[in-house]
Amino acid sequence: MSEPITLEKPIARGEQTIPAITLRKPDAGALRGIVLSDLLRMEAGAVADLLPRITEPPLLPHEVARMDAADLMACAVEISNFLLPRSLKPAG
Q1: What's this model's pTM, rounded to 2 decimal places?
Q2: All structural domains of the chain with their residue ranges
Q3: How confident is the model over 55-65, as pLDDT tens digits?
């Protein structure tokens, strides 16, 4: 699990507001049908396809589609970090 990502623009769900989300490291099943190189390039469509599969609380596809661009980028950065092997991550 990632550290919680505080959203620049909280997501409204009925009368509930989601101010932060946590991402779960995707397993092979969550990555099904997604081109991994698109995720590493932080391609918005690939990130948007993956987020409903790995967010806590679970986000719906239409909620992801309405996310603030800065929030989508924060999620893309976290996803790319999940995909890098330890040998390629900076020490620390």
Answers
A1: 0.89
A2: 5-85
A3: 999 999 999 99
